[in-house]
Specification:
Strand order of the largest sheet: 3-5-8
Structural class: mainly alpha
Number of strands: 8
Oligomer: single chain
Number of helices: 19
Shape: globular
Length: 424
């Protein structure tokens, strides 16, 4: 009986503890937020604010109201609780990961259907490598042209475009030759709310997220086609093109609570050189010849501190610094060694509002990936057997003639056989 009572007591304590955790929110949207803004929980500590660019941004009443007023109707449509849940999860990760002082964070958002490309590449990658990537997303497909290792190198490459363009603020984001190498990011979820005021989307991550939009048009099905050759599955695309198109259309459909995709990107400070601070449109914020790696890291490290300090400044200083702080943004370089490498230390978390279509999408995606990977199973099962036979033959019957003449022919034949089997 004592054991039962003790067990009940522990269960009761656990439930109270669990309830307290689940009921804790960093922010709450007031029904009258159109004039009030986000309500930051009174229990939020100084530690949380200092390690959360998003909370520090919302702690300034002018920023807070601006972020919400710009998006009032859309937030009402998507639902208060849906938005609250996503922001609170993102802020929780900010306080946890940035609390170690080893990382910086930036945000990007895009239309919902673009995840079809990301998911197909990631799922095939996971299946063929027999791994699970819980804290990483592939922002682009690997490309041999993604060679820039830091902001200085990238900016030097396009120095002439910056110096001599008649439209200096638009040449990066709107130039296909250049924008394939960069992704527009903000230092907090709501950054650039002032720049994005009015009807146009502008540069605010949150606005792209809730509107499920992109600054440029993207042909998703063509990009998906480029995925398959990377796994030597070229013919598989034609076989499954209709199913892939169906997935894209499913996510493109309008739903009352539809959102876009919010990406939270944590970058270790030792590789933060893949960022540079930019103007709207993507051109470098600082002089071309300065150390862009150094200034990007400094700007991100000081973002939260400077935002908090803004609360304690004079009226004159506040309004001089207001625009400057709000409009801080960065461009993230895409390269194969860091940005597209799941083992680089970069962590990427993805958020979206769950809807009936997203639930159906996940189910249909899993079925499609299983079909695609089943087509390659014969390769995965057969390849090691053939390789072992080759090794046995080479070890047992080695001669210079076999080494130099016979083995290259055998290896070439095996390679061709594997490629033909893969492209069934």
């Amino acid at each position: 009986m004592k054991q039962i009572n003790l067990c009940l007591k522990f269960t009761f304590i656990f439930l109270i503890f669990k309830t307290n955790i689940l009921s804790f929110n960093y922010i709450k949207i007031d029904p009258n937020f159109n004039t009030i803004g986000f309500n930051i929980n009174n229990n939020i500590t100084k530690y949380d604010i200092q390690n959360s660019p998003t909370l520090s941004y919302l702690s300034i009443p002018e920023f807070n109201r601006l972020a919400l007023q710009n998006n009032y109707k859309k937030i009402c449509t998507i639902g208060f609780t849906n938005i609250e849940s996503i922001i609170n999860k993102a802020v929780e990760r900010e306080t946890q990961i940035l609390g170690t002082n080893n990382n910086v964070v930036v945000y990007h958002a895009h239309k919902r259907e673009l995840i079809v490309l990301q998911d197909i590449y990631k799922k095939i990658y996971e299946k063929l490598n027999q791994i699970t990537l819980n804290d990483f997303e592939f922002l682009r497909l690997p490309d041999s042209s993604f060679k820039f290792q830091n902001g200085n190198e990238f900016i030097r490459m396009y120095e002439n475009e910056i110096r001599y363009s008649s439209f200096p603020f638009n040449i990066f984001d709107n130039n296909p030759k250049i924008n394939k190498h960069i992704i527009a990011t903000n230092a907090s979820i709501f950054g650039n709310s002032l720049y994005s005021a009015g009807h146009h989307i502008g540069e605010c991550t949150f606005k792209y997220f809730i509107k499920s939009d992109n600054i440029t048009n993207i042909n998703i099905i063509d990009l998906c086609k480029n995925t398959f050759p990377l796994f030597k599955l070229s013919k598989a695309f034609n076989k499954y093109k209709k199913q892939i198109n169906n997935l894209i259309q499913l996510l493109a459909e309008n739903e009352s609570t539809k959102s876009g995709i919010l990406l939270q990107i944590f970058i270790p400070k030792n590789i933060a050189s893949i960022l540079y601070r930019s103007n709207p449109g993507g051109t470098p914020y600082y002089n071309i010849n300065c150390n862009h790696e150094k200034y990007a890291l400094e700007s991100l490290e000081l973002y939260t501190k400077n935002t908090i300090q803004l609360l304690n400044t004079s009226f004159y200083t506040f309004y001089n610094k207001f625009n400057e702080l709000d409009e801080i943004q960065f461009r993230l370089l895409i390269n194969n060694t860091e940005t597209l490498n799941p083992y680089s230390g970069i962590k990427i978390f993805r958020y979206m509002v769950e809807t009936p279509n997203t639930k159906k999408y996940k189910s249909e995606l899993e079925k499609l990936i299983n079909k695609i990977t089943q087509d390659t199973k014969i390769i995965m099962d057969t390849k090691p057997i053939i390789q072992n036979l080759c090794k046995f033959f080479q070890d047992k019957y080695w001669t210079p003639f076999i080494e130099n003449k016979v083995m290259p022919c055998i290896k070439n034949y095996i390679s061709q056989t594997i490629e033909n089997l893969t492209n069934v």
